[in-house]
Design goal:
This protein is about 45% helix and about 15% strand. It is α/β, with parallel strands linked by helices and about 350 residues long. The strands form two sheets. Strands 2-1-3-4-5-6 form a six-stranded parallel beta sheet, with helices on both faces. The chain is globular.
């Protein structure tokens, strides 16, 4: 049996979709993958200690030959992984980014998160990552003996035809796609907006946000302080049709992330011919070349973000050249079919070998 110790996945975007596709592929190649439908797995208990014992209980009850965990699960799966290794059974770890590293400010919590992630990575028999950047991070934190497989994800939005804009938008329409969390660096984009009073701008933010979170409240404080309420629009999660419409109508895509395991929304934006301003962080430099596909800036630097946005907003020819380059580049990006082929060709044989040893 293969047991997925994953939180509830509703299959909306990003890591959830990637995890669902991993689950589906393993179900097609192995018997008795549990749970049968990943989205039926109950929501994670908000208490990580209780969740940790629940995962251990589930593991002991099913006695799987292989468990699949996400590195971001941290402490929740420590005991289950420890039990598996004590019984000489196999562990697969999925690593799609480093978001937990940026989630907490408390030093003690950050230490525990780091310790838990390192424990999972060191105990893994297989680590599945989504970029060369994630592979380097995983390798630096674990043994050279552990198998690391890179499978870059596809993306859902595939426009049949894109018209590169030949005129300037008034106002310049900026687009950010992602959750309102620290790792996405949205606060630095909001600060950059406050510095660009010389340009008529709007910013659409498409992604989940929690009005009770401290991070969101900090952003709203800046929005109010600089009277940006009329130009910054929090849209929340949007469906595929609405997101496609946003990509088509936007002038510039902005990705101010502190780190990215892959950068799926950037790939989508490029497939719509959007020029971009993005952080020189994580896997982003694997996807774009500075001044060719995007203007790359140092993370946490609102002044550099503002300069990059201002340059693209004022230079229509640069936007058109970058838009055409991005259309060409997007044609080379992985699809979900190629993602599945990598899993079938590289991951499945490794799992079969481990389970037969």
């Amino acid at each position: 049996m293969i047991l997925f110790l994953q939180n509830k996945a509703e299959g909306k975007r990003g890591g959830e979709l990637t995890t669902l596709r991993i689950h589906m592929l393993l179900k097609n190649h192995f018997k008795n993958v549990q749970p049968d439908v990943l989205s039926e797995l109950s929501e994670a208990n908000q208490n990580p200690i209780k969740h940790m014992f629940d995962c251990l209980k589930s593991t002991k009850k099913t006695r799987p030959r292989l468990i699949v965990v996400d590195v971001s699960s941290g402490v929740r799966n420590l005991l289950a992984v420890r039990w598996m290794k004590k019984k000489q059974r196999r562990v697969m770890v999925i690593m799609l980014g480093q978001r937990m590293t940026f989630r907490y400010n408390n030093f003690i919590i950050k230490f525990l998160v780091r310790y838990s992630e390192n424990f999972l990575l060191r105990k893994a028999d297989i680590i599945l990552v989504n970029s060369e950047f994630s592979a380097r991070v995983a390798r630096n934190r674990t043994s050279n003996k552990i198998e690391i497989i890179v499978a870059k994800p596809g993306f859902e939005l595939t426009p049949s035809a894109v018209e590169i804009k030949r005129h300037s938008d008034t106002p310049t329409r900026l687009l950010f796609v992602g959750e309102c969390t620290k790792v996405k660096g949205l606060i630095y984009l909001i600060k950059a907006m406050s510095m660009m009073t010389d340009i008529e701008l709007t910013l659409n933010i498409a992604g989940n946000y929690n009005i009770e979170s401290a991070y969101y409240k900090k952003i709203i404080t800046i929005v109010n302080r600089y009277h940006l309420n009329d130009v910054v629009n929090f849209l929340g999660f949007v469906d595929s049709d609405s997101l496609q419409n946003l990509y088509r109508k936007s002038t510039i895509y902005v990705m101010p992330s502190l780190s990215e395991g892959y950068g799926k929304s950037l790939a989508e934006a490029m497939s719509f011919g959007l020029p971009a301003v993005a952080s020189n962080a994580g896997a982003i430099p694997e996807m774009v070349e500075d001044k060719v596909n995007a203007i790359l800036v140092e993370p946490k630097n609102p002044e550099a973000l503002a300069d990059g946005i201002r340059q693209l907003a004022r230079d229509g020819e640069l936007r058109r050249e970058m838009g055409r380059a991005n259309l060409d580049k997007a044609g080379t990006f992985p699809t979900w079919d190629s993602f599945s082929m990598v899993l079938a060709d590289q991951l499945v044989p490794v799992i079969k070998k481990l389970l037969n040893e």
